[in-house]
């Protein structure tokens, strides 16, 4: 049954998004359906198979992990965030495909100044379906509570200074190589988790077994309500 639903999903998405045969193969190999299915209940899974990806809330947009094999970067401790950013800009079309529906690129290294102190947001997008800015911060290591605090600053700034009439509150996405769910849970106040997200990224396409294990781990965390 699950395979039939996945097949129906890919057929709908390929038609709706005009995927080439190569793009379709890439989405199947990266288990796009399974990654999107993580945040959905049984009714949500049925809708995926019947209508494809429908974006109604932030959780419908962000998936974990993101697969970014198209960057051609090695998994190395010597990788720095500027290298990752430059590679994403060079491969922006592929990155937009991986991010999913509704993302429009706005800026890179967006500077904000607060009482003479400068801060730089790595990547800024606007989501045309959710009607909000999406701020992305790139990390080459494990997520820390300082990373989340920095993203809170960016999101608050955009909500107070950049948000226009008709815009919904900004969303923050931190891309990292690893994360501790307890750090995310206890750093964010109640309700803020709906505005700030953390997703791991992979610089190569894992085997189906490896990716399935990752997805099962995330699903277990979601069903248990996260770490104690």
Tell me the total number of β-strands.
Answer: 6
Strand content: 15-25%
Q: Which percent bin holds the helix content?
A: 40-55%
**Mind describing the biggest β-sheet?**
6 strands, mixed
SSE pattern = HHHHEHHEEEHEHEH
From the 3D structure, determine the CATH topology of the largest domain: Trna Endonuclease, Chain: A, domain 1
Highest-level CATH class of the largest domain: Alpha Beta
How far apart lie the N and C ends?
A: 34 Å
Please name the defining characteristics of this protein.
228 residues; alpha/beta; Trna Endonuclease, Chain: A, domain 1; six-stranded mixed β-sheet; 9 helices; 6 strands
Provide structural commentary.
With 228 residues, the chain is α/β, with parallel strands linked by helices. The chain folds into 2 domains: 1-54; 55-224, Trna Endonuclease, Chain: A, domain 1, CATH 3.40.1350. 44% of the residues lie in helices and 20% in strands. It contains 9 helices and 6 strands; from the N terminus they run ααααβααβββαβαβα. The chain has helices at residues 2-17, 21-29, 32-37, 42-51, 81-90, 92-99, 145-162, 181-187, 208-224; strands at residues 66-67, 103-114, 117-127, 132-138, 171-176, 196-202. A 6-stranded mixed sheet has the order 1-6-5-4-3-2, with helices on both faces. The chain is globular.
